[in-house]
């Protein structure tokens, strides 16, 4: 089975063209291929599939085999893949995900997709729809005790649940210690992605993320989007902000006119390969 390794700001996934390949047991395949010693190594598995509702359909699986509703970095990579591998000539692509249909705007130069802007849709702020167990609306400053510290979370869904907290010196912050516990805290019925954010100025923040099912990743598009929304809700930044991640920078804008969040960032091919092992 042929596969392609791609990354967006260091958030790396294995992509399989399901127009040509047949994938059975994607949950088990995601676990096997994502393992970094005996597999390919990745943050998960992405299937590029036909869609009856859009131009293409994306299914994504975390490295523990759980299926995610949406991944911003993966959606950008899908846009680059389908254009440069000749599956479409469109530069505006509709992508079906479990988090809804997302519109990708491909920024192409000399046949190469240099970056992609994804319409991430409107942020979900209702506690029950995120979901998070809270009486707040929106969920700003929800205090949660995790191990030896109390965190004030702002909760947002961008197709999957996020809890954003503001810290100092984020690059030195022990996010594995607290992210691992926050992911499964009882206040989050479907688990949660946790963003630890340092404010640099009103147009620049630094972020690290603990993703449910994957642990810390070098980037998270939905997490960067949720972070931008949380920053605005807490009066910490403008509506357009550069989110600096370990693997690179994403530009996020929460548009005041249509209430949609727009994410712009890179997508890159790493290599192609052939998977030989049954799972």
TrEMBL record:
Q: What class of enzyme is it?
A: isomerase
Q: Name one GO biological process term.
A: lysine biosynthetic process via diaminopimelate
Provide the catalytic activity annotation: (2S,6S)-2,6-diaminopimelate = meso-2,6-diaminopimelate
Q: State which pathway it belongs to.
A: Amino-acid biosynthesis; L-lysine biosynthesis via DAP pathway; DL-2,6-diaminopimelate from LL-2,6-diaminopimelate: step 1/1
> Which key words are in the record?
Amino-acid biosynthesis, Cytoplasm, Isomerase, Lysine biosynthesis
Task: Tell me the InterPro entries matching this sequence.
Answer: DAP_epimerase_AS, DAP_epimerase_DapF
Classify the source by domain of life: Bacteria
Keyword Isomerase carried by entry: yes
**Cellular component, GO annotation:** cytosol
Q: Where does substrate bind?
A: 11, 62, 72-73, 160, 193, 211-212, 221-222
Q: Where is this site: Could be important to modulate the pK values of the two catalytic cysteine residues?
A: 162, 211
SUPFAM superfamilies in the cross-refs: Diaminopimelate epimerase-like
The keyword Amino-acid biosynthesis is annotated on this UniProt entry:
yes
Q: Which residues form the active site?
A: 71, 220
**Enzyme Commission number, as recorded:** 5.1.1.7
Citing just one GO molecular function, the answer is: diaminopimelate epimerase activity
Family the UniProt entry places it in: Belongs to the diaminopimelate epimerase family.
Q: Spell out the PANTHER family in the cross-references.
A: DIAMINOPIMELATE EPIMERASE, DIAMINOPIMELATE EPIMERASE, CHLOROPLASTIC
- Describe its function: Catalyzes the stereoinversion of LL-2,6-diaminopimelate (L,L-DAP) to meso-diaminopimelate (meso-DAP), a precursor of L-lysine and an essential component of the bacterial peptidoglycan.
Q: How does it assemble?
A: Homodimer.
For this entry, the protein name equals Diaminopimelate epimerase
Task: Please report the organism this UniProt entry assigns to the protein.
Answer: Anaerotignum faecicola
